[in-house]
């Protein structure tokens, strides 16, 4: 979708009913929970090597310290240097993988929403060379924004959480846009629909955690993806998709 057209659709979008979106999210979850479980498992497995690399300096420094009785009880600044050197690139790798998988998941959600068949490699469709550059830039931008918001205390973090939640959706359905354009569109949509999106995320997260804990904790594996669906539906209601015209034309011809 053209960038200017995307912004126009966001600006001219109508109000969204909370109850309607939440009800649709529950119905959509019934269709997509299996892919949601796959998303959680695959994300963890792909991030595991990066997480192991991240904790190697900490574990190594702690072990070295435990064998040296003359060292102080706290980890020395020198021992933390490898950790900080690895922290940013590892976080970028994790964020890039997560963003790419989330974009693929939203493409699956769209297919399920239309009752279409899902290709086996749909979850990994954006973790390919043509998209990695944009994924890396978006991951870098989002990490910087999140870091700056964290330094400014709690409320900025809460604010930016909504626009950042739209990045993977904007990327999934507008991959032809530049990274900066995607980021601008995400904040445009996040600002426009901030309150209802934040409320949907909070309620869906609470419900997913509550049901997951009732199912002895392991249920979180099955309910975690429910929290991603309200943002998809907000995008659907506010912006729509390029195939919406195709669907409406088919429905008109059938009548």
How does this model look, in words?
This protein has 255 residues and is an all-alpha fold. 77% of the residues lie in helices and 0% in strands. It contains eleven helices and no strands. α1 runs parallel beside α7, α2 crosses α10 and α4 runs antiparallel to α5. It is globular, with a radius of gyration of 21 Å. The two termini are 29 Å apart. Residues 69-73 and 246-255 have low confidence and may be disordered.
Question: Taking Cα atoms only, what radius of gyration do you get, to the nearest Å?
Answer: 21 Å
Q: Structural class given helices, strands, pairing?
A: mainly alpha
Q: What pattern of helices and strands is seen along the backbone?
A: HHHHHHHHHHH
Bulk shape: globular
| Average pLDDT, all residues | 84
Beta-strand proportion: under 5%
Percent in helix: over 70%
Give unreliable regions as ranges: 69-73, 246-255
Largest sheet: number of strands, sense, barrel closure: none
In total, the number of strands is 0
Question: What are the SSEs and their pairings?
Answer:
Blueprint: H1 3-11, H2 18-66, H3 77-113, H4 129-151, H5 154-165, H6 167-173, H7 179-192, H8 194-214, H9 220-223, H10 229-238, H11 244-254
Helix pairs in contact: 1-7, 2-3, 2-10, 3-4, 3-6, 4-5, 4-7, 5-7
Task: Label this structure with key terms.
0% strand; disordered C terminus; 255 residues; globular; mainly alpha
